[in-house]
Amino acid sequence: MSSSTAILLSLALPLAGALGIALASRINNNVREAVTLITAGTLAWTVWGLLPALLAGERPSISVAEVLPGIDIAFTVEPLGMLFAALASMLWIVNSIYSIGYMRGNQELHQTRFYIFFAIAISAVMGIAFADNLFTLFLFYEILTLSTFPLVSHKGDAKTVQSARIYLSILLTTSIGLLLPAIIWTYFIAGTGTFTVGGILDGKLEGPAVGLLLGLFVFGIGKAAVMPVHRWLPAAMVAPTPVSALLHAVAVVKAGVFTVTKVIVYIFGIDFLFAEPSGGWLLYITAFTVIAASLVALRQTNLKRMLAYSTIGQLSFVLMAAATLKPFGEVGAAMHMVAHAFGKITLFFAAGAIYTASKKTEIFQLRGIGHRMPWTMTAFTIGALSMIGVPPTGGFISKWYILAGSLQAENYVAIATIILSTALNAAYFLPIIYLAWFTKEDTAPPREHGEAPFAAVLALTITAALTLLLFFFNSPLLILETQLVQGMP
């Protein structure tokens, strides 16, 4: 199979899977879910098949259509996009396994619709990951927003629909009101929107205009959840847990930080942005978001809301690392995308398993639950330790590189943020671990229960194992991502 064919298949397979899911549902649920798993597995095989060519220095690409002169729908595989696509395609398999256990265990309605829109969202993720230019990226960015709306509003009650509307309105308002003008401005001054090594704005823009354009991009990419455009993320917690995992680990928020990082590296260019003082505000606003979101997480009593604010902080952790504009920082940003994906999807899987087995949603209800659900809470503990940055978890490796990048830049704001946020992460995760393992449950539990259905427990065990394996086997990822920083000062 040629690389260009593989790119197109990466986009088409999830869409074909969505159609297959719809048709299979007319037979029975087992066939429907088999189609989901086969599609996810085939997509991962296709995407990962592009990796050898990329490591060999190739940049597979294909142009599909010219929409306007100089504006086309085109795709190119580069290191950052490969990382995002490989991560999303792999986690779709695990999320699908989990979804089978969760959706059946909770007897959710409209399961076929859930699997269909999930597949469409994954197709949009592939388009974002492999986008060759800003126009293509914007097109699939909007498709991702629209395709996830039915997932967020899945339950269909008035409260859920209202929260889903907040989700949709914030993401559409920011993308159309800020991101689209930023893209048009870029095409106007640079004559192109193609992602280019070293950027395309050097000599085309200077002074305060650089900081203004960067602001339009950062706040226009609402999926990155930089404060104050973050409210959509807690609102989306009304969705079923597999959707929360999609939003926080597989697709939506990763699309946000990926897009901001890609704009910094391939539109502005690291050297150009480093030389422009007006772009320095990004590090401070991301540092503020890290600390503020962590403080809000510390005050939460609902488990999923606490995880939501934790995600907001961790996303800006990635962007702060990228904003150091140093090689170790850029590698740390990419590495933390992976570490956060593995750790946070594990945490949400565990939260969903707890709800499925016991209907518990509040942190204070978790007293002694580790003894009833040892597999689930062991996975939760591993995910939490990774968010804190404790070895031997992937979060330790990514935070190591982010700290190294901050030291490289001699940026004491970033260094202080890393130390303080780590302490805050520990302050809201360690009490949960203590509560689950080292306290006794209520003498009269409202419901006798054990673990969640096998499929859900299997999925969270896999992602917890991946969180640990990333600590020991991260060399291929480092080799891929160092291609991003070759030639950086």
TrEMBL record:
This is Multisubunit sodium/proton antiporter MrpD subunit. One of its GO terms (cellular component) is plasma membrane. The keyword Cell membrane applies. Pfam families: Proton_antipo_M (PF00361). It is found in: Cell membrane; Membrane. Residues 131-422 form the NADH:quinone oxidoreductase/Mrp antiporter transmembrane domain. The chain crosses the membrane at residues 34-55, 67-94, 114-144, 165-190, 210-233, 245-269, 281-299, 306-325, 337-357, 378-402, 414-438, 450-473. InterPro entries: CPA3_Na-H_Antiporter_D, ND/Mrp_TM. Keywords: Cell membrane, Membrane, Transmembrane, Transmembrane helix. The keyword Chaperone does not apply. It is a multi-pass membrane protein. It comes from the Bacteria.
